[in-house]
């Protein structure tokens, strides 16, 4: 996995073909992206061809009309940093350029065609090159958790027995659309464990996909999952999770704790009463619940079950 923007920039530019684009075109593209000029409708109408304006207008998804300015970016809604900069520009010939850039720390590539009319630079077209593959949205609203089961982390100290509440951190399991994974190609960016990973190799191993050599070589593993999805695996076949935020939920009067034993062959404990005494009697690491082994069931906005399984 890439650990910082500087490494990503160095590797991508080292692998790229020599960047020999005319200086004026390079400056134009860098200025357009790094100063977010593509968000200015006046700039677009001055520098985009009629066919591109029509394309951007057709792709606009909201009422009132406008231009799909996000076509110049990665399409991500959020990212691991605030970096918004051009990494490298490659001249493909015939007016086409490929620019590699960082969008909030997420690396992406676009193809863009330029021309020149009476001393003015025109954008004739913009096209996808490599894409960002991100986990599917969780569909959860932390301000209105009603009927759902969520991975969560907390400790026994996070229970507020006087008010009958539990303060917890809620997560979603990282699941990817199987169709997107089936067309994933070298050069795409996979958002893995909340970090961008540029795909350099894809190999099928025992029915799973090893990306960039798999976990042993600093890559990752994707395995088929239920409902037409793939799940990202970490070490010991643990799934990866994305932190969604904090939530404080009421405990149902008859909420149940189903807890694992200290060893994998021990049967689980079902605690139907005396939950406070049970949790306070736990020792050491058992007082901590993690998203890797704990799910919380919520019904009608109240916690009805907390289940922890044994994991290695």
Can you tag this structure with a few keywords?
312 residues, alpha+beta, Nuclear Transport Factor 2, Chain: A, five-stranded antiparallel sheet, 20 strands, disordered N terminus
Tell me about this structure.
- With 312 residues, the protein is an alpha+beta fold.
- The chain folds into three domains: 5-130, Nuclear Transport Factor 2, Chain: A (Roll), CATH 3.10.450; 148-173 and 242-308; 178-239, no CATH class.
- 16% of the residues lie in helices and 41% in strands.
- It is built from six helices and 20 strands.
- The strands form four sheets. The chain has a five-stranded mixed β-barrel with strand order 6-8-16-20-19. Strands 9-15-14-13-12 form a five-stranded antiparallel sheet. Strands 1-2-3-4 form a four-stranded antiparallel sheet, sandwiched between helices.
- 25% of the residues are buried.
Summarize the structure.
Helices cover 16% and strands 41% of the residues. The protein is built from 6 helices and 20 strands. A hairpin with a 2-residue loop joins strand 3 and strand 4.
Shape-level CATH architecture of the largest domain? Roll
Secondary-structure element series: HHHHEEEEEEEEEHEEEEEEEEHEEE
Q: Alpha-carbon distance between the termini?
A: 24 Å
* Largest sheet geometry: 5 strands, mixed, barrel
Look up the CATH topology of the largest domain: Nuclear Transport Factor 2, Chain: A
The dominant shape is elongated
Give the quaternary arrangement of the chains: single chain
Low-confidence stretches: 1-22
Average pLDDT confidence is 89
| Beta-strand content estimate | 35-45%
Strand order of the largest sheet: 6-8-16-20-19
- Number of continuous helical runs: 6
**Rg calc:** 25 Å
CATH class of the largest domain: Alpha Beta
Protein structure class: alpha+beta
DSSP helix fraction? 10-25%
Number of β-strand runs: 20
